[in-house]
Write a structure and sequence with these properties.
Layout lengths: L2 E7 L4 H10 L8 E8 L2 E8 L2 H7 L9 E7 L14 E2 L5 E9 L2 H10 L12 H10 L5 H9 L4 E9 L6 E6 L4 E5 L2 E5 L11 E4 L4 E6 L2 E6 L5 E2 L4 E2 L15 H7 L1 H8 L4 H13 L2 E6 L1 H18 L3 E5 L3 H5 L7 E7 L5 H12 L3 E6 L5 H5 L2 E4 L12 H21 L4 H36 L5 E5 L3 H16 L3 E5 L16 E6 L5 H12 L4 E7 L3 H6 L2 E5 L8 H19 L18
Parallel strand pairs: 16-17, 16-18, 18-19, 19-20, 21-22, 21-23, 23-24, 24-25
Antiparallel strand pairs: 1-4, 1-10, 2-3, 2-4, 5-6, 6-7, 7-8, 8-12, 9-10, 9-11, 11-15, 12-13, 13-14
Helix pairs in contact: 3-4, 4-5, 7-13, 7-14, 8-13, 9-13, 9-15, 13-14, 13-18, 14-18, 15-18
This protein binds 5-amino-5-deoxy-1-O-phosphono-D-mannitol.
Length: 607
């Protein structure tokens, strides 16, 4: 979603830090860029539709002076991308500049009220009502802080807000409800941002603002207050161990590629989960009469794979649900005996957090798996696990998918052990295989880089892809399809292979490319029949199978051969890696930017 950065510094020009900070948030997706600074009590604001470099150069943003300021990259929710709709937005006198991430639900009613009082609006955004409301409150002879508090209490919806004003030229005011906002402090001053990577070059000492809180930033610190009653909140800063380098590309052309190749390491970290939290989560899971796995996008595919793993290893039935559908589907049945295990890389996905709210209201036990320390998910879950993938900047989730499935597999193993569902030998063997997963991923990525490049070249002009798998491989197929679809924009389908004869097969004709995911295991004999069904209708068959699987190799036009010995139940973690690489190569060959697919944002924090 929108990127936010603000700072008050002793040394240097704020605009330099603001533009650098915004660049580090580009992965969130955006359409417009804007900056405001104050110098000698004078506010300057420059903003326009377009990429940061473009807007910074066209509007000579680096000439803006001042040691206090804020910047914003906008991802449109209300009003098309345009100069007028770009943030910052101001009050009538341009003495208040405000940036916002989120959605104000009651803005139309607030706008009507302001229009009646004679306010003139320049944009079609929901955000612009806020500085006008503050202006209106300040007419009551109150300070900016009090005016802001009064306005915040009237807003319904989600927001991370940052306010700069000539009324208080040495302070920045920030507030949060549902949209993430993090504060940072260093010897050079104080900072705020919508996400940690923007702060890392300046500080690793951060404080996460929580829902319903406002903070007043000054050069040497910040004070947090509750919006409801202005009580002061004391909160220690947290040290972030990610270095700025960790969040950069480290020589790879794109973040996505870097993150694909980071998987052997992120998976090794994922095998070092804190035992007591793993135990706690599995104990809660074990107590549930029904278990829901709730997530969106790629994290949902992790849940889908997880439901097969929980069933096969721990003999637990779980229900994977897309978070935006959770309440409609299970709202009237979820209750005190339900466990809702939510999975979210960012820990800030609106739909997932909404599902959690509802589940908590109905007394369900909410558990979380996330990649983001201090995220909302960690605060609202009864117990949570950090999946240890490290920062993921590419919009397309890669290493966070494999880590999530790995965490779920470890939970399943724990449960199988505590429930006595597998023999000691079976447990030991699975555990041994789990430990080998990072090496299998490494081996596949090393061996397959060239074959995948050649495969991508041979199919780059295809106009449709169909991904098919059986059992747990249907989750791998769905995730492979999402990767190709979201970064290459090529229409693609994915189905459990057995389902294709009930409809999707009608689109198969000469030359349609079908990608089959076929690891060794229980489903392997059935996939042969599915391949033949497609082949006999003229499809071009690409299979990803175990090395030397002669039947599959014979039936396929092209194959990707994977290391031997990977158990089917763990196969999504390894078999997805070449598919991620394939999607990446296709996007690059088509001249697209895989890190910033159109219309998408890394973290979807709006309804
Ligand atoms: O942060 P989350 O895991 O909750 O995000 C969920 C989805 O928005 C995310 O997985 C999205 O589908 C990715 N772009 C997929 O690559």
């Amino acid at each position: 979603m929108c990127g936010i950065f603000g700072c008050i510094i002793r040394e240097g020009e704020a605009v330099k830090l603001i533009t650098d900070g915004l660049k580090r948030l580009e992965y969130r997706g955006y359409d417009s860029t804007g900056v405001a600074t104050i110098q000698n009590g004078q506010m300057s604001i420059r903003k326009d539709k377009g990429r940061i470099e473009e807007v910074v150069s066209n509007l000579r943003i680096l000439d803006m002076e001042g040691q206090i300021g804020l910047g914003h990259t906008r991802w449109a929710t209300h009003g098309a991308p345009s100069m007028e709709n770009a943030h910052p937005h101001t009050d009538s006198n341009e003495s208040i500049a405000l940036i916002h991430n989120g959605v104000i639900e009651n803005y139309l009613e607030l706008k009507d009220e302001l229009l009646e009082k004679g306010h003139i609006f320049k944009s079609r955004t929901d955000t612009e009502v806020i500085p006008h409301l503050i202006e209106e409150e300040m007419k009551n002879d109150i300070g900016l802080q009090e005016a802001m508090l009064r306005v915040l209490r009237r807003l319904r919806g989600s927001y991370a807000l940052v306010v700069l004003s000539t009324h208080e030229p040495d302070r920045i005011f920030v507030a949060r409800n549902e949209s993430p906002l993090v504060l940072g402090i260093s010897d050079n001053g104080t900072f705020c941002a919508s996400d940690v990577p923007a702060l890392l070059p300046y500080t690793n000492q951060v404080t996460y603002l929580r829902n319903g809180e406002m903070a007043v930033m000054e050069i040497d610190g910040y004070q947090i207050l509750k919006i409801s009653d202005e009580t002061r909140v004391g909160r220690e800063t947290q040290e972030i161990t990610w270095s700025p380098e960790m969040a950069e590309k480290q020589g790879y052309k794109h973040y996505m590629l870097k993150e694909i190749y980071e998987q052997p390491n992120s998976l090794k970290d994922g095998l070092r989960l804190q035992e007591r939290y793993l135990d706690l989560l599995t104990q809660f899971l074990d107590r549930g009469k029904e278990v829901f796995l709730v997530a969106a996008g790629t994290s949902f595919h992790s849940c889908l794979a997880g439901s097969y793993i929980l069933s096969k290893i721990a003999r637990i039935t779980s229900i994977p649900v897309v978070s935006s559908e959770f309440m409609e589907r299970y709202g009237s049945t979820v209750g005190i005996d339900s466990v809702v295990l939510t999975v979210s890389q960012s820990g800030e996905t609106y739909d997932t957090l909404k599902a959690i709210d509802q589940a908590r209201m109905r007394a369900a036990t909410v558990l979380g798996i996330t990649n983001t320390v201090g995220s909302t998910l960690t605060r609202v879950s009864r117990a949570y696990l950090i999946q240890q993938s490290g920062p993921e900047i590419g919009v397309a989730a890669t290493k966070t998918f494999t880590s999530q499935v790995l965490v779920l597999a470890q939970m399943a193993l724990r449960l199988a052990k505590s429930r006595g569902k597998l023999s000691q030998d079976e447990l030991d063997e699975l555990d041994e295989k789990l430990q080998k997963v990072p090496d299998w991923v490494e081996e596949s990525l090393e061996k397959l880089a060239d074959p995948i490049e050649k495969l991508a070249e041979s199919i780059m002009d295809e106009e449709l892809f169909v991904f098919l798998g059986r059992g747990i491989s249907s989750a791998t197929a769905l995730e492979a399809r999402l990767k190709v679809l979201e970064i290459t924009y090529v229409p693609s389908l994915a189905y459990p292979a057995g389902e294709s004869k009930h409809g999707p097969i009608s689109i198969i004709e000469d030359g349609v490319t079908c990608v089959f995911v076929c690891p060794q295991g229980e489903t392997r004999p059935h996939i042969v029949g599915s391949i033949m069904e497609m082949k006999s209708r003229g499809a071009r068959i690409i299979s990803i199978c175990e090395e030397g699987d002669s039947d599959i190799i014979r039936l396929s036009d092209q194959v990707i051969e994977m290391p031997k010995g990977i158990p089917e139940v763990l196969s999504p973690i390894v078999y997805i890696a070449p598919m991620q690489l394939l999607a990446y190569k296709l996007a690059v060959m088509k001249g697209l930017d895989p890190d910033m697919p159109r219309n998408l944002a890394k973290s979807v924090t709006v309804p």
